Amino acid sequence: MVTLFLKKITFQFNLVLLLILIAVNGYASTNMVIVIIDGARYSETFGHPTHVYIPYMHNLAWQGTVLDNFRNDSLTYTSRAIPALWCGTWTGVRDTVYNGSNTQYSLKPSIFEYFRKQKAVPATDCFYVLKYISSLWLPSFNADYGPDYWPQYHSVGSSDADVIIQAKSVLSMYHPVFTWIYLADVDGAGHSGNWTLYTRAITIADSLVGVLWNFLQNDQFYQNTTTLFVTNDHGRHDDQHGGFSGHGDGCEGCRHIMFLALGPDIKSNYVSHQSRRIPDLAVTAGHMMGLNLGHSSGEIMSEILATNLLQDVSESVPTFKLAGNYPNPFNNYTRIIYSLNAYSHVLAEIYNLAGEKILTILDEKQIPGTKFLVWSGKNDLRQEVTSGIYFIRMQAGSHVGYHKIILIK
């Protein structure tokens, strides 16, 4: 029986891989990972003539795109730049007490909130991984978004190395579609004023990006289906404005930061000289995930995208395709993956083996693209159903598809 289940899982995973050809907005990537390296100056990353401190990212760059004019265009300190990276716009923040700790929250919604609400996914599909911090900065309390759509925070460990170990664990266990990883050690080392500690922290962060990318390319769920963005929140003072131990003004050292993009939809061996800024990160990531960041001010960095990867999709892909679900079998929740190549009314229903409908999971008009639904093993009354074999019936226009789902508790 175990062998049968393993064969079934492999079969379903292969079906999932087929959706690479028909992903959202024509993109092959179905997963997004963003890494923020806090406080690395461009002159020690991609601005260094020999890239001595970032050998791994330098070697990875031929697989992707480097932006050599990516900038923090406003406030060059962490408490404001990080929310701007989240929100796709420079946002105000407000001090608060949350769960007994003093912290701050963003006034505008974050990409986490857009993602979870617009995709209707659980928190385990959207992780924020960082070292242990007693009072985490929070996304928004916006009336249309807010805490119900915050990411799942995973705040464990005391170093960047710990964070990547924890990130690999989270990615392996939950396979989130969207993961945000924050590496803090470079900024702390820079503030020490010790050049050796600072540059060593950059080298460690660089090696950890290499470890992460290697992991993603060797995990069946993420392999060839994942976009990775790596950037900073701010740089550090240049030598004319106080040197690397500080930051916070408008000097070139504080403003100029790195940006590396890797993935199946990213141009390879490409350097863009176009001026880009912090809010463009979330807007571009959101665009690739099929999101509408309604409160954002950034722009899509279209120059980094290999837009010719999928051509004449409308002629080569059927109007409707039910690609399967993952994981299958499942015992907590499963993602049901399907694609539309035309604007359609979509009806999706779950049936048991007796042919009884237990749940209408979707009934709405949708635009083209690859999409997924999440079923948590409950019926229309929000009651948990028993272990067994179920079927999803999906209809888009005149096209109907069926797929077997196995629930094990």
Q: What does the largest sheet look like?
A: 8 strands, mixed
Count of spatially separate domains: 2
Output mean pLDDT: 89
Spatial strand order of the main sheet: 7-6-8-1-9-11-2-12
Query: Strand content of the residues, in percent?
Result: 25-35%
Through-space gap between termini: 15 Å
The total of beta strands comes to 20
What is the helix content?
Answer: 25-40%
CATH architecture of the largest domain: 3-Layer(aba) Sandwich
Question: What is the fourth-level CATH superfamily of the largest domain?
Answer: Alkaline Phosphatase, subunit A
Radius of gyration: 22 Å
Can you tell me the CATH class of the largest domain? Alpha Beta
* Shape assignment: elongated
Structural class: alpha/beta
Low-confidence stretches: 1-24, 308-318
Number of helices: 10
Might you state the CATH topology name of the largest domain? Alkaline Phosphatase, subunit A
Order of helices and strands: HEHEEHEEHEEHEHHEHEEEEHHEEEEEEE
